[in-house]
Amino acid sequence: MDSSSGIMVSSLFEIAHIPSISPLATSVELSTTLYSHFYRTIAPDNWRASLLADMAQFFNWTYVAAVALDDSFGRYGVWGIEKEVNTRDNLCLALTRFVPRVDHFQMVQKIVLELKSNEKVKVVFVWLYGQYARVFMEEAVKQDVKGRTWIFTDGSTPAAPFFRDARFADILNGSFGILPKAQCSEPFKKYLANLAKRNFTGSTNPWWTEYWNHLDNKSLDSLRQSFPNNNPLANSPYISYTIDAVYAFAHALHNMYSCKEPHGLLEGGKCPPVREKKVMGKKLHVYLKNASEFADSKGLKQGT
Fold this sequence. Notes:
Elements: H1 3-15, E1 20-22, E2 38-40, H2 46-58, E3 63-69, H3 72-86, E4 92-99, H4 105-117, E5 123-127, H5 130-142, E6 149-152, H6 169-172, E7 176-177, H7 186-200, H8 206-214, H9 232-235, H10 239-257, H11 281-289, H12 292-295
Parallel strand pairs: 1-2, 3-4, 3-5, 5-6, 6-7
C-alpha cells in the first residue's frame, strides 16, 4: 500500500476506527491527525528530504531542481525539501515542477526542455516512481539532456527497467538514489525457497525449472536451503518492513486474545471483548499503539 493507496484506504477506515499498517506509504500527509488510525513500519519522507539536503551540502551543490509526481507522495516530498532549504545556507531550490498522474506526456516534455535550457541546474532530485520515472528519463534521453546528476528517491528503485537499459547508461552515469535500509531475512528466503520447491515442481509448471536454471545458474534442488541472491522477491528493501507490519498486527491480536484482567490496556486494566474471530477496530488500535517491540527499533508509531 503506497502513499496514494494509503490515503484512500485510511480515509475510509478512519470513519469506522479501523487501523491499518503500511510498509510502503511514506508521505508526510499520513502523519496528520486526519489519519490517527494509520501506522507504518517505514520512515516518512521528511528524513528523505533532510538526506537530500545533506547530500547537496556535502557535495557543494548550491543550485538544484526537483521534479515530483503531483500527488501526496511528490508534493509533500518537495515541500519537505523546500523546508530544509529554508534552514540551510548556500542551497537554492531553483526549480520545482510536478508531473500530473494523468495526461503527463506533454508536461514531461516541457519540464525536460526547461531543465535542458537551464544550464545552471546541474543536479535534479527525481521524486517519481514507476512509469512516471521511466517516461521522464526516456524524454531526457530523447532531448539529449547532458551534464546533469539525477538523484532518485526510493520511488525509483534499482529494479526499475530503465536502470538496466543500455540506452540510459550515459545519462545516468554519476547518478544515484536512496533506499530505506534493507534488512535481509534468512528465514523468509528459506520459506520462499521451500514454497517454490513445494508448489512449482513437476510437470504442471515445466517453465519453473527452466526459470531457476536460468537465474544465477540455480537448480530447483539447490533451493531447499537457499534462495537466489539476485531474486527480487527475496531482496526487495521493503521485505523487512512488510514482515514488521504483519508481526505488529499478529502481536497486537495475540495480546488482545491472551489478555488477563487487571492487566489489560483498556481503562481500568480491562481486557478488550473478543469473540470467535471478531475484534473491534478501536480496541485493536489501542493495542497497536503499544506495540513497543516495533516502536523504537522499527519505526512503527502512530501517524509517524
